[in-house]
Specification:
This protein has helices at residues 3-22, 35-49, 60-68, 81-89, 126-130, 144-155, 159-162, 172-180, 191-195, 227-235, 239-247; strands at residues 25-31, 52-58, 75-77, 99-103, 106-111, 135-138, 166-169, 186-190, 200-205, 215-220. It is α/β, with parallel strands linked by helices and 251 residues long. Helix 2 (35-49) links the parallel strand 1 and strand 2 (52-58). It is elongated.
Length: 251
Amino acid sequence: MHRSFVVAMAALVFACFASAARADTFTVFAAASLKNALDEIAKAYGSRTKDRVVISYAASSALAKQIEQGAPADLFVSADLEWMDYLEKRKLVRASTRFDVVRNRLVLIAPADSSARLRIAPRFPLAATLGKERLSMGNPDSVPAGRYGKAALEALGVWTDVRPKVAAANDVRAALLLVARGETPFGIVYSTDAAVERKVRVVDTFPENTHPPIVYPAALTAESRSAAAKGFLDTLREPAARAVFEKYGFR
C-alpha cells in the first residue's frame, strides 16, 4: 500500500475521532408547552454543531423536583418563575446564566367541533355551562398552567364553583389532550398549546391582569459541565430562535 495513501487514511481517521471528541451530548429539562418550538430549535442547533440535544418534557414542577433529587440535567427551562426560584434558592441552578426566554397567554379552549360560546368576564357562567362535565387544566397545586388558571378563575370570582369540576392533569399538554379527545368540554391551556392542536379551538383569552405574568426562565444547572449546553442556552437568545418561538405563538 502506497505510503501517501496510508498517511491520508490515518489523517482522515484522526479527523473523524477529533470531530467525535468535540461533539457533546447534553440534557435539557423543559416545560411541556415548549415542545414544538424547542424541538425545532434543538434540531437546528444539532445540525449546526453536531452536538446531541436530549430534551425531557414535563410539568415544570415535576422537572424541578427531579433536578432537586439529582437527575442529570444540564439546562432547565421553566414555565414560570417560581420553580426556577425554587431551584435557585437551593443553589441547584447557576444564577449567573439565568434569563427570561419568552412569554405566553392563557386561554379557554373547547373541542374544535363544539358550538359552545363563553365570554371570559367577572362571574362568567363557566360552572353552570360545564354542568356535570369537567374542566381540564394542569394541577392547580403544582403545574404552572394550573396555577395560572386557578389564579385567573379566583380573580374572576368563579373558582369556588368550578373547583369541584376540575380534571387536574399532570402537565398542560395532558390537559390539552383531554379536550382534543372530547373527554372534557373545556380546558385551560396556553395559547401556544391551542395553536398546535387542530382538534381544539380557543373560546376566549384570559385577561393578563387576572393572573401572574406567564414567563419562561432558563438557566444551566449547578452540576452541568457541558460547554454545548451553555452554547444551546445562548442560542435561545438569538434572532433565529426568537423567530421559531414567535412562529409557535410565544412572545
